[in-house]
Design brief:
Elements: E1 6-8, H1 13-22, E2 27-30, H2 36-41, E3 49-52, E4 62-64, E5 69-73, H3 78-82, H4 92-100, H5 104-109, H6 112-118, H7 125-131, E6 135-140, E7 143-148, H8 149-152, E8 153-155, E9 158-159, E10 166-173, E11 179-186, E12 196-204, E13 210-218, E14 225-226, H9 228-234, H10 241-254, H11 265-289
Parallel strand pairs: 1-3, 2-3
Antiparallel strand pairs: 4-5, 5-10, 6-7, 6-10, 8-9, 11-12, 12-13, 13-14
Helix pairs in contact: 9-10, 10-11
Bound molecules: flavin-adenine dinucleotide.
Protein backbone atom coordinates (compact mmCIF):
# COMPACT_ATOMS: atom_id res chain seq x y z
CA UNK A 1 0.00 0.00 0.00
CA UNK A 2 1.20 3.50 -0.79
CA UNK A 3 1.80 5.63 2.31
CA UNK A 4 0.02 9.02 2.32
CA UNK A 5 2.01 11.98 1.07
CA UNK A 6 1.57 15.66 0.27
CA UNK A 7 1.11 16.15 -3.49
CA UNK A 8 2.40 19.15 -5.46
CA UNK A 9 1.83 19.74 -9.18
CA UNK A 10 4.03 22.63 -10.31
CA UNK A 11 3.40 23.89 -13.84
CA UNK A 12 6.71 25.69 -14.38
CA UNK A 13 10.33 24.73 -13.83
CA UNK A 14 10.79 27.64 -11.46
CA UNK A 15 7.85 26.54 -9.27
CA UNK A 16 9.29 23.00 -9.18
CA UNK A 17 12.77 24.16 -8.17
CA UNK A 18 11.34 26.27 -5.33
CA UNK A 19 9.42 23.20 -4.06
CA UNK A 20 12.52 20.98 -4.30
CA UNK A 21 14.40 23.53 -2.22
CA UNK A 22 11.58 23.94 0.33
CA UNK A 23 11.10 20.18 0.87
CA UNK A 24 14.71 19.15 0.26
CA UNK A 25 14.81 16.91 3.35
CA UNK A 26 12.04 14.55 2.20
CA UNK A 27 10.61 14.59 -1.30
CA UNK A 28 10.43 12.48 -4.39
CA UNK A 29 9.98 13.78 -7.92
CA UNK A 30 7.46 11.94 -10.09
CA UNK A 31 7.39 12.27 -13.90
CA UNK A 32 5.64 9.48 -15.87
CA UNK A 33 5.55 7.26 -12.76
CA UNK A 34 6.53 4.12 -14.70
CA UNK A 35 9.33 3.28 -12.27
CA UNK A 36 8.47 5.32 -9.20
CA UNK A 37 4.94 3.99 -8.66
CA UNK A 38 6.31 0.43 -8.41
CA UNK A 39 8.70 1.49 -5.63
CA UNK A 40 5.93 3.40 -3.80
CA UNK A 41 3.56 0.45 -4.03
CA UNK A 42 6.21 -1.91 -2.70
CA UNK A 43 6.80 0.47 0.22
CA UNK A 44 10.47 0.74 -0.74
CA UNK A 45 10.06 4.52 -0.83
CA UNK A 46 7.82 6.45 1.57
CA UNK A 47 8.30 10.14 0.81
CA UNK A 48 6.44 12.81 2.79
CA UNK A 49 6.17 14.99 -0.33
CA UNK A 50 5.71 14.03 -3.98
CA UNK A 51 6.47 16.69 -6.58
CA UNK A 52 4.75 15.87 -9.87
CA UNK A 53 6.68 17.51 -12.72
CA UNK A 54 4.75 15.83 -15.57
CA UNK A 55 2.74 19.04 -16.20
CA UNK A 56 5.81 21.22 -16.86
CA UNK A 57 5.33 21.65 -20.60
CA UNK A 58 8.49 23.72 -21.05
CA UNK A 59 10.56 20.54 -20.43
CA UNK A 60 8.84 18.52 -23.17
CA UNK A 61 10.73 19.17 -26.43
CA UNK A 62 13.22 17.88 -28.98
CA UNK A 63 15.19 20.64 -30.69
CA UNK A 64 17.74 20.36 -33.43
CA UNK A 65 20.34 23.03 -32.97
CA UNK A 66 21.78 22.73 -36.49
CA UNK A 67 25.53 22.22 -36.26
CA UNK A 68 25.46 22.19 -32.45
CA UNK A 69 23.39 18.99 -32.16
CA UNK A 70 20.19 17.91 -30.47
CA UNK A 71 18.56 18.96 -27.20
CA UNK A 72 15.93 16.80 -25.55
CA UNK A 73 13.84 18.09 -22.63
CA UNK A 74 13.72 15.80 -19.59
CA UNK A 75 9.94 15.32 -19.90
CA UNK A 76 10.02 14.10 -23.49
CA UNK A 77 8.39 10.69 -23.61
CA UNK A 78 10.05 7.61 -25.12
CA UNK A 79 7.32 7.51 -27.75
CA UNK A 80 8.00 11.12 -28.84
CA UNK A 81 11.68 10.27 -29.36
CA UNK A 82 10.84 7.02 -31.14
CA UNK A 83 8.72 8.86 -33.73
CA UNK A 84 10.56 12.18 -33.98
CA UNK A 85 11.62 13.30 -37.48
CA UNK A 86 14.77 14.71 -35.89
CA UNK A 87 16.14 11.20 -35.26
CA UNK A 88 18.19 11.09 -38.45
CA UNK A 89 21.76 10.09 -39.33
CA UNK A 90 23.61 8.81 -36.29
CA UNK A 91 20.75 10.02 -34.03
CA UNK A 92 18.54 7.37 -35.66
CA UNK A 93 19.93 4.99 -33.05
CA UNK A 94 17.91 6.86 -30.39
CA UNK A 95 14.66 6.03 -32.15
CA UNK A 96 15.79 2.41 -32.65
CA UNK A 97 16.68 2.15 -28.95
CA UNK A 98 13.28 3.53 -27.91
CA UNK A 99 11.56 0.99 -30.13
CA UNK A 100 13.22 -1.76 -28.07
CA UNK A 101 12.22 -0.21 -24.71
CA UNK A 102 9.31 -2.04 -23.11
CA UNK A 103 5.82 -1.73 -24.61
CA UNK A 104 4.01 1.21 -26.31
CA UNK A 105 2.05 1.76 -23.06
CA UNK A 106 5.24 2.37 -21.06
CA UNK A 107 6.81 4.36 -23.89
CA UNK A 108 3.73 6.59 -24.11
CA UNK A 109 3.93 7.63 -20.49
CA UNK A 110 7.59 7.19 -19.40
CA UNK A 111 10.07 10.01 -19.95
CA UNK A 112 13.72 9.95 -20.97
CA UNK A 113 14.57 12.13 -17.95
CA UNK A 114 12.78 9.75 -15.57
CA UNK A 115 14.54 6.80 -17.12
CA UNK A 116 18.10 8.01 -16.64
CA UNK A 117 17.32 9.66 -13.27
CA UNK A 118 16.08 6.27 -12.04
CA UNK A 119 19.66 5.03 -12.53
CA UNK A 120 18.86 1.43 -13.45
CA UNK A 121 22.06 -0.03 -14.97
CA UNK A 122 19.88 -2.10 -17.32
CA UNK A 123 18.00 0.93 -18.70
CA UNK A 124 18.15 1.31 -22.48
CA UNK A 125 18.78 5.04 -23.01
CA UNK A 126 21.94 5.52 -20.90
CA UNK A 127 24.41 3.43 -22.98
CA UNK A 128 23.18 5.04 -26.20
CA UNK A 129 23.50 8.54 -24.73
CA UNK A 130 27.02 7.70 -23.52
CA UNK A 131 28.06 6.37 -26.91
CA UNK A 132 26.75 9.56 -28.55
CA UNK A 133 28.74 11.72 -26.08
CA UNK A 134 25.71 13.26 -24.34
CA UNK A 135 25.78 15.76 -21.50
CA UNK A 136 22.96 16.30 -19.03
CA UNK A 137 21.79 19.63 -17.64
CA UNK A 138 20.79 19.74 -13.97
CA UNK A 139 18.97 22.67 -12.37
CA UNK A 140 18.33 23.86 -8.81
CA UNK A 141 17.46 27.19 -7.19
CA UNK A 142 21.22 27.83 -7.11
CA UNK A 143 21.53 27.60 -10.92
CA UNK A 144 22.44 25.05 -13.58
CA UNK A 145 25.32 22.66 -14.14
CA UNK A 146 26.25 20.42 -17.05
CA UNK A 147 27.59 16.91 -16.49
CA UNK A 148 29.02 14.36 -18.88
CA UNK A 149 26.59 11.41 -19.05
CA UNK A 150 29.44 9.19 -17.91
CA UNK A 151 29.74 11.14 -14.64
CA UNK A 152 25.94 11.24 -14.15
CA UNK A 153 25.69 7.46 -13.68
CA UNK A 154 27.32 6.60 -10.37
CA UNK A 155 26.15 3.21 -9.05
CA UNK A 156 23.10 0.92 -8.84
CA UNK A 157 20.08 3.27 -8.95
CA UNK A 158 22.34 6.16 -8.01
CA UNK A 159 23.15 9.27 -10.01
CA UNK A 160 25.29 12.34 -9.37
CA UNK A 161 22.17 14.48 -8.81
CA UNK A 162 22.20 16.36 -5.49
CA UNK A 163 19.18 17.01 -3.27
CA UNK A 164 17.28 20.01 -4.62
CA UNK A 165 18.42 19.32 -8.20
CA UNK A 166 16.47 17.97 -11.12
CA UNK A 167 17.41 16.87 -14.60
CA UNK A 168 16.12 19.33 -17.18
CA UNK A 169 17.80 18.55 -20.50
CA UNK A 170 19.93 16.08 -22.43
CA UNK A 171 22.35 17.60 -24.91
CA UNK A 172 23.78 15.60 -27.80
CA UNK A 173 26.68 17.04 -29.81
CA UNK A 174 26.41 17.02 -33.61
CA UNK A 175 28.38 14.01 -34.82
CA UNK A 176 31.25 14.59 -37.28
CA UNK A 177 30.79 13.37 -40.89
CA UNK A 178 31.14 9.62 -41.44
CA UNK A 179 29.86 8.76 -37.98
CA UNK A 180 27.57 5.79 -37.42
CA UNK A 181 25.92 4.50 -34.26
CA UNK A 182 24.12 1.26 -33.39
CA UNK A 183 22.53 -0.34 -30.33
CA UNK A 184 21.31 -3.76 -29.39
CA UNK A 185 20.02 -5.45 -26.28
CA UNK A 186 19.72 -9.09 -25.41
CA UNK A 187 16.71 -10.06 -23.34
CA UNK A 188 14.68 -13.20 -22.89
CA UNK A 189 11.25 -11.51 -23.13
CA UNK A 190 11.02 -8.96 -25.96
CA UNK A 191 9.60 -6.09 -23.87
CA UNK A 192 11.81 -6.73 -20.85
CA UNK A 193 14.85 -4.94 -19.45
CA UNK A 194 18.22 -5.83 -20.99
CA UNK A 195 20.18 -8.85 -19.81
CA UNK A 196 23.08 -7.05 -21.49
CA UNK A 197 23.04 -4.14 -23.95
CA UNK A 198 25.74 -2.49 -26.05
CA UNK A 199 25.83 0.84 -27.89
CA UNK A 200 28.61 1.86 -30.22
CA UNK A 201 29.42 5.03 -32.14
CA UNK A 202 32.21 5.01 -34.75
CA UNK A 203 33.75 7.87 -36.76
CA UNK A 204 35.86 7.05 -39.82
CA UNK A 205 38.38 9.10 -41.84
CA UNK A 206 38.20 9.22 -45.65
CA UNK A 207 40.51 6.16 -45.83
CA UNK A 208 38.27 4.27 -43.30
CA UNK A 209 40.69 4.64 -40.38
CA UNK A 210 38.71 4.80 -37.12
CA UNK A 211 39.30 8.31 -35.75
CA UNK A 212 36.91 7.93 -32.83
CA UNK A 213 34.88 5.18 -31.20
CA UNK A 214 32.72 5.15 -28.09
CA UNK A 215 31.37 1.84 -26.80
CA UNK A 216 28.97 1.75 -23.83
CA UNK A 217 27.61 -1.26 -21.96
CA UNK A 218 24.29 -1.67 -20.13
CA UNK A 219 23.49 -4.28 -17.44
CA UNK A 220 27.18 -5.24 -17.46
CA UNK A 221 28.26 -3.32 -14.32
CA UNK A 222 26.63 -1.46 -11.39
CA UNK A 223 26.23 1.49 -13.77
CA UNK A 224 26.16 1.98 -17.53
CA UNK A 225 29.87 2.11 -18.46
CA UNK A 226 32.24 2.93 -21.32
CA UNK A 227 34.33 -0.02 -22.58
CA UNK A 228 37.51 2.01 -22.89
CA UNK A 229 39.95 -0.89 -23.31
CA UNK A 230 37.87 -2.11 -26.25
CA UNK A 231 37.80 1.40 -27.74
CA UNK A 232 41.61 1.68 -27.47
CA UNK A 233 42.02 -1.47 -29.58
CA UNK A 234 40.05 0.09 -32.46
CA UNK A 235 40.93 3.79 -32.34
CA UNK A 236 43.47 4.93 -34.96
CA UNK A 237 43.22 1.68 -36.93
CA UNK A 238 41.34 0.30 -39.88
CA UNK A 239 38.76 -1.93 -38.22
CA UNK A 240 38.91 -5.59 -39.21
CA UNK A 241 36.96 -8.62 -37.98
CA UNK A 242 40.06 -9.72 -36.05
CA UNK A 243 40.25 -6.35 -34.25
CA UNK A 244 36.51 -6.45 -33.51
CA UNK A 245 36.97 -9.86 -31.92
CA UNK A 246 39.82 -8.52 -29.76
CA UNK A 247 37.72 -5.48 -28.80
CA UNK A 248 34.82 -7.76 -27.80
CA UNK A 249 37.19 -9.81 -25.63
CA UNK A 250 38.57 -6.64 -23.99
CA UNK A 251 35.04 -5.34 -23.28
CA UNK A 252 34.05 -8.64 -21.68
CA UNK A 253 37.11 -8.45 -19.41
CA UNK A 254 36.58 -4.81 -18.33
CA UNK A 255 32.84 -5.32 -17.70
CA UNK A 256 31.81 -5.88 -14.07
CA UNK A 257 28.66 -8.01 -14.40
CA UNK A 258 26.89 -9.80 -11.56
CA UNK A 259 25.00 -13.09 -11.52
CA UNK A 260 21.29 -12.68 -10.91
CA UNK A 261 17.93 -14.18 -11.80
CA UNK A 262 18.33 -13.22 -15.50
CA UNK A 263 21.87 -14.51 -16.19
CA UNK A 264 25.13 -15.62 -14.65
CA UNK A 265 28.22 -13.40 -14.64
CA UNK A 266 29.90 -15.70 -17.20
CA UNK A 267 26.93 -15.59 -19.55
CA UNK A 268 26.84 -11.79 -19.37
CA UNK A 269 30.59 -11.60 -20.17
CA UNK A 270 30.00 -13.81 -23.21
CA UNK A 271 27.12 -11.55 -24.32
CA UNK A 272 29.30 -8.45 -23.93
CA UNK A 273 32.01 -10.08 -26.06
CA UNK A 274 29.69 -11.08 -28.90
CA UNK A 275 27.46 -7.97 -28.89
CA UNK A 276 30.37 -5.48 -28.71
CA UNK A 277 31.90 -6.91 -31.90
CA UNK A 278 28.51 -7.18 -33.64
CA UNK A 279 27.21 -3.70 -32.77
CA UNK A 280 30.51 -1.97 -33.51
CA UNK A 281 30.61 -3.64 -36.92
CA UNK A 282 27.12 -2.29 -37.61
CA UNK A 283 28.11 1.20 -36.41
CA UNK A 284 31.15 1.04 -38.72
CA UNK A 285 29.08 0.07 -41.75
CA UNK A 286 26.67 2.96 -40.98
CA UNK A 287 29.66 5.33 -40.71
CA UNK A 288 30.85 4.19 -44.13
CA UNK A 289 27.39 4.77 -45.62
CA UNK A 290 26.96 8.15 -43.87
C1 LIG B 1 6.45 -2.82 -17.51
C2 LIG B 1 7.68 -1.96 -17.60
C3 LIG B 1 8.70 -2.31 -18.46
C4 LIG B 1 9.85 -1.53 -18.56
N1 LIG B 1 10.82 -1.89 -19.45
C5 LIG B 1 11.90 -1.08 -19.62
C6 LIG B 1 12.89 -1.38 -20.60
O1 LIG B 1 12.81 -2.35 -21.35
N2 LIG B 1 13.95 -0.54 -20.70
C7 LIG B 1 14.09 0.57 -19.92
O2 LIG B 1 15.08 1.31 -20.05
N3 LIG B 1 13.15 0.87 -18.97
C8 LIG B 1 12.08 0.09 -18.82
N4 LIG B 1 11.13 0.39 -17.87
C9 LIG B 1 11.37 1.53 -16.97
C10 LIG B 1 10.65 2.78 -17.41
O3 LIG B 1 10.28 2.80 -18.73
C11 LIG B 1 11.51 3.96 -17.25
O4 LIG B 1 12.28 3.95 -16.12
C12 LIG B 1 10.66 5.21 -17.35
O5 LIG B 1 11.07 5.82 -18.54
C13 LIG B 1 10.84 6.16 -16.23
O6 LIG B 1 10.32 7.41 -16.63
P1 LIG B 1 9.15 8.04 -15.82
O7 LIG B 1 8.93 9.39 -16.43
O8 LIG B 1 8.00 7.13 -15.75
O9 LIG B 1 9.88 8.22 -14.39
P2 LIG B 1 9.26 8.09 -12.91
O10 LIG B 1 8.86 6.70 -12.65
O11 LIG B 1 8.27 9.15 -12.67
O12 LIG B 1 10.59 8.44 -12.07
C14 LIG B 1 11.67 7.56 -12.03
C15 LIG B 1 12.75 8.11 -11.11
O13 LIG B 1 13.36 9.27 -11.66
C16 LIG B 1 13.14 10.43 -10.83
N5 LIG B 1 12.87 11.52 -11.78
C17 LIG B 1 11.96 11.51 -12.79
N6 LIG B 1 12.12 12.60 -13.56
C18 LIG B 1 13.15 13.31 -13.01
C19 LIG B 1 13.82 14.53 -13.38
N7 LIG B 1 13.48 15.22 -14.48
N8 LIG B 1 14.82 14.96 -12.60
C20 LIG B 1 15.19 14.26 -11.50
N9 LIG B 1 14.63 13.09 -11.11
C21 LIG B 1 13.61 12.63 -11.87
C22 LIG B 1 12.00 10.06 -9.89
O14 LIG B 1 12.11 10.74 -8.66
C23 LIG B 1 12.22 8.55 -9.74
O15 LIG B 1 13.23 8.33 -8.79
C24 LIG B 1 9.98 -0.38 -17.76
C25 LIG B 1 8.94 -0.01 -16.88
C26 LIG B 1 7.80 -0.79 -16.80
C27 LIG B 1 6.70 -0.37 -15.88
Amino acid sequence: MIKDFEYFGPKTLNEALVLLDKYRDDYKIIAGGQSLIILLRQGLLQPENVIDIYGIKELDYIKSDGKKGLKIGALTTHREIEYSDLMKGSFKVLSEMEHLLSTPQTRNRGTIGGNISHGDPAGDPAPVLMALGANVKLASVAGERILDMEKFSVDYFETAMEHGEMLVEIELPAPPPHTGAAYTKFNIIASDMATVSVASCVTLAADDTCTDVRIALGAAAPRPMRAKAAEAILKGKKITDALLKKAGQAASEEAEPVSDISASEEYRRELVKVLTARVTKEAMSRAKAG
